[in-house]
Amino acid sequence: MTDNDWTEWALIEKLDFTRITTTSGVYEIGASINRQSQPINRANGVDKNGLLYIGKAGNIRKRIKDFWRHVLTEGNQHTAAETYIFYGFDAKFKRESLQVRWLVLPKGMQSEFEKKLIDEYLEKYLDSPPLNIRIHRPKF
């Protein structure tokens, strides 16, 4: 998969959720300033994409909608949204700055691909995306 296979970044608050696919895949939530990715300092450099979360979904529309509803109302269960609210990420990354993109994958591949994306992020920045609080740890 290449960057060309991903959708364009879109501001979550402006999304028409009916236009999001209901198929399986992975998605990323990032922060923006004036529709440009907001850089985030990491342990090993600066993440210029402003990536806050990498997630998987059996139904991409439902998962992104769950995240957004939880951010707005503290309703539906979504770990990233819970982390965003509980730790006060909204003070640094305003709700209106949150953006999302997704990648459609064949059913059953989303877990493996999510793990791959998180592992690549960890290798590059020696850190996980800030809202990924539960990450896979290899067994030694």
List low-confidence stretches.
none
What structural class do the secondary elements suggest? alpha+beta
Give the % helix. Answer: 25-40%
Mean pLDDT: 91
The domain tally reads: 1
Bin the strand percentage.
15-25%
In total, how many beta strands? 7
State the separation between the terminal residues, measured CA to CA. Answer: 29 Å
Our count of helices gives 3
Q: Looking at the structure, what is the overall shape?
A: globular
Q: Whole-number radius of gyration?
A: 14 Å
What summary fits the major beta sheet? 5 strands, antiparallel
Order of helices and strands: EEEEEEHHEH
Topology:
Elements: E1 10-11, E2 25-33, E3 36-37, E4 40-42, E5 45-47, E6 51-57, H1 60-73, H2 79-86, E7 98-104, H3 110-125
Antiparallel strand pairs: 1-7, 2-3, 2-6, 2-7, 4-5
Helix pairs in contact: 1-2
Q: Keyphrases for this structure?
A:
alpha+beta, 5-stranded antiparallel β-sheet, 24% strand
Structure notes:
With 140 residues, the protein is of the alpha+beta class. The chain has one domain (3-125). It is 27% helix and 24% strand. The chain has helices at 60-73, 79-86, 110-125, and strands at residues 10-11, 25-33, 36-37, 40-42, 45-47, 51-57, 98-104. The strands form two sheets. Strands 1, 2, 3, 6 and 7 form a five-stranded antiparallel sheet that branches. A two-stranded antiparallel sheet has the order 4-5. Strand 4 and strand 5 (45-47) form a beta hairpin. Helix 1 runs parallel beside helix 2 (79-86). The protein is globular, with a radius of gyration of 14 Å. The model has no long low-confidence stretch (mean pLDDT 91).
